[in-house]
Amino acid sequence: MEVVIVQDAKAGGELVAQGIADLLRRRPDALLGVATGSTPLPVYRALAARVRAGTADVSRARIAQLDEYVGLPAGHPESYRSVVMRTVLKPLGLSPESFIGPDGSAEDVRAACEAYETALTAAGGVDLQLLGIGTDGHIGFNEPCSSLASRTRIKTLTEQTRADNARFFDGDIEQVPQHVITQGIGTILEARHLVLLATGEGKAEAVAATAEGPVAAVCPASALQLHPHATVVVDEAAASKLKLAGYFRHAYAHKPAWQDL
Ligand code: F6R
């Protein structure tokens, strides 16, 4: 994997947004896999700014959701579908028709998982999947010890993840659902390009385990090491526990001109 160290979250957002804009120039109807949470917000802001400035054309882009809470009523403001509508589709001027995602309010959640796998395949697969990372190393909501070959399915959140996400639910962990639908690690690995963004010191340990640790289900993000085109973009704080930081900086400074993000 390629590890790119940037100064701060804003610089990470700019870099990834530019990578998405470049992809859309090559493939205007690319299927972009989006993550929710705080980390990718600077990416969506930077991309929307490019659209306003006329330097990015997202008009034919398609958006695929990574994961979803189970059991929140349809339209709940913190359902990930609502979050993606609010933070991605609306600022980019995309209609809901350009969006696919799992149905977390379905009565038959298992069937909803299967239906989402089918929808991803029918859409031609994800071209670029943007990922955040949990403090416990999760990607999507594949918590530690998820199968590295897993497909879209129901998972139970760890207490750590529920505590981390309580800030979106008035700080009340009790309001954070116990269950989620998430693309599996095997599903995520099928995207043509994986871009993991991590910012802040709280992610430093998980980032080091992802990039420098063994490939191990205890750190689900380490599965990115198995992908032929994975880019990990980290700010200085999130890079602070990388032993190879010096090499990563050197390699990026000498990046071949033909290589994209
Ligand atoms: C969200 C998701 C999660 C988050 C992760 C980090 O769709 O899949 O893996 O990316 O929990 O969340 P933040 O960015 O809020 O720290």
UniProtKB/TrEMBL annotation:
Database matches in InterPro entries: Glc/Gal-6P_isomerase, Glucosamine6P_isomerase, Glucosamine6P_isomerase_CS, NagB/RpiA_transferase-like
Q: What's this chain's function? A: Catalyzes the reversible isomerization-deamination of glucosamine 6-phosphate (GlcN6P) to form fructose 6-phosphate (Fru6P) and ammonium ion.
Q: Which GO terms describe its cellular component?
A: cytoplasm
Q: How is its activity regulated?
A: Allosterically activated by N-acetylglucosamine 6-phosphate (GlcNAc6P).
Q: Carries keyword Hydrolase?
A: yes
Query: Of which family is this protein a member?
Result: Belongs to the glucosamine/galactosamine-6-phosphate isomerase family. NagB subfamily.
User: What is the name of the protein in this document?
Assistant: Glucosamine-6-phosphate deaminase
* Gene Ontology biological process terms, A to Z: carbohydrate metabolic process; glucosamine catabolic process; N-acetylglucosamine catabolic process; N-acetylneuraminate catabolic process
Q: Which pathway is this protein assigned to?
A: Amino-sugar metabolism; N-acetylneuraminate degradation; D-fructose 6-phosphate from N-acetylneuraminate: step 5/5
User: Top-down, what is the taxonomic lineage of the species of origin?
Assistant: Bacteria, Bacillati, Actinomycetota, Actinomycetes, Kitasatosporales
Record keywords, A-Z: Allosteric enzyme, Carbohydrate metabolism, Hydrolase
- Entry EC number(s): 3.5.99.6
Q: Which reaction does it catalyse?
A: alpha-D-glucosamine 6-phosphate + H2O = beta-D-fructose 6-phosphate + NH4(+)
- The EC class name is hydrolase
Catalytic residue positions: D67, D136, H138, E143
MF terms in GO = glucosamine-6-phosphate deaminase activity; identical protein binding
Q: Which PANTHER family match?
A: GLUCOSAMINE-6-PHOSPHATE ISOMERASE
Return the annotated site residues (Part of the allosteric site).
Answer: S146, R153, K155, T156
PROSITE patterns per the UniProt record, alphabetical: GLC_GALNAC_ISOMERASE
All residue ranges annotated as the Glucosamine/galactosamine-6-phosphate isomerase domain in the record: 10-225
The organism named in the record is Streptomyces pacificus
Q: What Gene3D superfamilies is this protein classified in? A: 3.40.50.1360
